[in-house]
User: Fold these one by one.
Assistant:
Number 1:
Amino acid sequence: MGVELLTRDFFDRPAHEVAPELLGRVLVHGDVGVRLTEVEAYGLPGEDPASHTYRGRTPRNAVMFGPPGHLYVYFTYGMHYCANLVCLPEGHGSAVLLRAGEVVSGLSHARARRPGVKDRDLARGPARLAVALGIGRPDNGLDMVGNVMTGGPVGQVASGPRTGISTGVDTPWRFWIAGDPTVSPYRAHTPRRRNSAATSVQEAPPSS
């Protein structure tokens, strides 16, 4: 069976429907291809409090309101980029966060970007995945239709609460390939505590 590229219609659906069907697909950016093993869906403005679009359109999240199949890249913790694929028609504001995967092509390039890291961990986590693929701020808004294709068998797909968020914590929109070693560990949100030396503590933004 030949390789099948995903069309824009694939992404023109609710994120929680697209997300589990992304598992096992191979996303290619530059010289590296990653087989997706873990993703999270983020919903519509006013409906999903964990989504970046919950309070409406801003300069930061504008790409999420654009055409489906485009890459939404955001900066978090002052040091990491994370990558999402936009879902639903233009104007809606929804996306799937790419949380983890297995590097299946361009391994030498991924290793060069993350030296000294085990191959299993090259794209194990959303920030690591972005680094392995060489995704950064200039890629925000990049059209990825034609860069996501079918992969191998998936096996059992598991679902559960999204990781590391403080709102919408019970929504079971995290999807992963059960038993895959590249899936990142689940972490519940832990509020940061203030101390006497701190002048301010800001909670981390939602994961998409």
Note: The first strand starts at residue 26 and ends at 29.
Number 2:
Amino acid sequence: MLLIGEIAKLAGVTPRTVRHYHRIGLLAEPERTAGGYRSYGMSALSRLLQIRKFTALGMGLGEVADALADTGAVDLREILTELDAELAEGESEIQRRRAVIARLLEHGDDPTLSPELAAAVRGLDLPQSEIGILRAAEVALPELVDSYLTGAGRESPWQGWDLKMAALADTGANDPRVEEIAGELYAMLPGLLPTDVPAELTADQTATVAATARFGQMMLTDMSPGQRRAMELLVEYGRREPERWGQ
């Protein structure tokens, strides 16, 4: 007769594992000694070895219980065939991941970007803030990513605007710089906005305008209180001069 520590050692498992098998009914409770200790025989050791072999193949404990059932209704070959298919699928996934890692190592791409976006920004030397915008926009506003990338890394008339907005990055809504910079931004708008806007937009143009509006709303969420207040002031200034904006 074997005690739990002895049978566990022979089967290559731990006593805790043996107790777990008892709790879930995978291994029958043995008789106990006069001192109250579990006492195991050869049949229990054989059962443990079977369980260990099946789990080593990747079978779940529920599948092991089915495979070891005495009903004769379980087709072990079918279980192993399904297990082989699962392992083949897992092997394919491992190969796919290795291919991705090889590409990342070859080009030094950001692994958190999609392959398409990583290839598009490769060599552009964009700041992390812009890459973060692209990472989110590719999922939330894919309509704008292509146009954004078209101008990425080039001189843009909006660079001066971005610098002024950046100056308000850590400001509160009541910071005295807010109103000053908002006035400077408002003065820049005529040179930044398109002047040849058609009276009626096409479906594609309407979709682009809607996407741009959503982009702006999302950007507002990340702005400091000072930056958001500056944007509110721009709207207020525009309402004071409706004729200037064709309204």
Note: The first helix runs from residue 4 to 11.
Number 3:
Amino acid sequence: MPETETTLDPAIAGRLKRSADGLVAAIVQEHGTGDVLMLAWMDDEALHRTLATGRATYWSRSRGEYWVKGATSGHFQHVRKVSLDCDGDALLVTVDQIGAACHTGTHTCFTDDLSVSGDPSVSGDPSVSGGLTVAGDLSVEA
């Protein structure tokens, strides 16, 4: 990753807990549906660019460069809100998604459901009822 000076607010930068390579996981959620669209990575500069422009900007680990979601595909993410989790090691980026979020052309990157064995109700989690439903409203409002 390049050594770049950023103008990210020092109060925000001070709360971030980065991986060994200086990155923070960015979970991307669609505003209108609540769908989790993708997971991407941000460093301080990518977060600064996202906050300053309202256009989702990430660090591409495979290409070794910054990328604005949609710059080549036309499938933009217009950022409505960015939230930092309680530990400072993950971001929730709430977006209006234009087109597909996934590079494969699907709405979300999370399309391959895996089989779960066992009875979730034995976990002791009181929010699990009969292993099938979760009590409470989990929707996100902006």
Note: The longest strand covers residues 77-84.
